[in-house]
Write a structure and sequence with these properties.
The chain is an all-alpha fold. 77% of the residues lie in helices and 0% in strands. It is a multi-pass membrane protein.
Length: 398
């Protein structure tokens, strides 16, 4: 976030074009969120399991099968996790591509990979096609460049826009899964194919949005960089901000060994804090909920359609919490939001864990009352609500 002086120094207007750029760039978050939410619902569909994982489907039908072993299949797990593994590897290449070719061309290529992933996944006839589709989804994870086109005074809210679109993508995926689960036997194909819709929007939208001024300047296109800055600010007087961008790019070029500088004693504390914030945000288990919500809800006693509907409710809470976070982050403060979220998540997880440990045996399920408490009060209200409210702002640190 910029200082108060910078906020007043840099002139800008929020134009229709600028807002369109923000939304189109944030569609990368919608793509990623859709991919997170779609896999859990698809793996809970009987038609999908019969096609690719018949052994898992057989175990699912056996009432006396251990609840913790029904979905124990390495390829089924790879179907979900290959997205993250591919995104991890591709992120290094994406960083280099952004530097060499610019943010806009990288986004165009990423959306093409994502479209290819949707095609392979929806048309899969074997497990390798499923896995390849998920890998292409991961490679197509779009780099975030919202912070480079957002005015300083709106940068925090615009950065959270990406997180908001992630949650919207998860909600849309839950709604799609609920609808397609009733379309036999190809509902799962439609769920996976619809991932291509936001990719198409992003592809054509990326032809409209401008390259970021920072990217243009760092590649030596100073005139184009200033013109792009004027376009996204909606004013002609951008000299002060333009000079700061040029200065920052020059300073970045002078850094010859960035990783060596990170190991300096003065850099280690903020480096460790920044990394651990991101790591422990993931270790709270939120991705397990978003990936496997329908499967978890089936385990505690919900039927197939009811479990998918419960995932929809979780998605609604997720989106609503992000709106609350956008409103509260600058009024309450990031630190207070994070601390209260940690306390409430600990209480919620402890309560849910205690209920499941005592009442959910290796076979059978919870009674309807306890299942409603776990899903409604525990997961939706206490856990998801507090998690999203307390940590959505962490996108600022990425």
């Amino acid at each position: 976030m910029g200082s108060t002086d910078n906020v007043h120094a840099f002139k800008s207007k929020i134009t229709v074009y600028v807002v369109a750029c923000w939304i189109l760039a944030a569609f990368g978050g919608l793509m990623f969120g859709y991919d997170i939410g779609i896999s859990g619902g698809v793996t809970a569909m009987d038609d999908f399991l019969v096609k690719f994982f018949p052994a898992v489907h057989e175990r699912k039908l056996h009432a006396k099968e251990d609840n913790y072993c029904k979905y124990d299949d390495q390829y089924l797990q790879l179907f979900t996790s290959s997205l993250y593994l591919a995104a991890l590897v591709a992120s290094f290449g994406a960083s280099k591509a952004c530097t060499l070719f610019g943010r806009k061309p990288t986004i165009i290529v990423a959306s093409v990979f994502f479209l290819a992933g949707a095609g392979f996944s929806a048309g899969a006839e074997s497990k390798w096609m499923l896995i390849l589709g998920r890998i292409l989804f991961g490679i197509g994870a779009v780099p975030v460049f919202l912070s480079e086109i957002a005015p300083v005074q709106h940068r925090g809210a615009v950065n959270i826009l990406f997180q908001l679109f992630v949650t919207i993508g998860i909600l849309i995926a839950s709604l799609v899964n609920y609808a397609t689960s009733m379309l036999h036997p190809y509902g799962w194909r439609l769920s996976l194919a619809l991932a291509g819709v936001p990719a198409i929007v992003l592809f054509f939208g990326s032809l409209i949005i401008t390259e970021t001024p920072t990217s243009l300047v760092e590649r030596g296109n100073d005139k184009e960089g200033k013109a792009a800055l004027q376009k996204i600010r909606g004013v002609d007087d951008v000299d002060a901000e333009y000079e700061q961008i040029k200065m920052a790019c020059e300073q970045a070029k002078q850094v010859k060994h960035p990783f060596k500088k990170l190991m300096k004693r003065s850099s280690i504390p903020p480096l460790i804090i920044g990394i651990l914030l991101q790591v422990f945000q993931q270790f709270t288990g939120i991705n397990a909920i978003m990936f496997y919500a329908p499967v978890l809800f089936q385990t505690v006693g919900f039927k197939n359609n009811a479990s998918l509907l419960s995932a929809v409710i979780t998605g609604v809470v997720n989106v609503g919490s992000t709106f609350v976070s956008i409103y509260a982050v600058d009024k309450v403060g990031r630190r207070k939001l994070l601390l209260q979220a940690c306390i409430q998540m600990f209480i919620a997880q402890s309560a849910i864990g205690g209920i499941l440990h005592v009442h959910l045996k290796s076979t059978g399920s919870l009674d309807k009352g306890l299942a409603a408490i776990v899903v409604g009060a525990g997961l939706c209200v206490c856990y998801v609500l507090c998690m999203v409210m307390g940590t959505s702002w962490l996108v600022d640190t990425q």
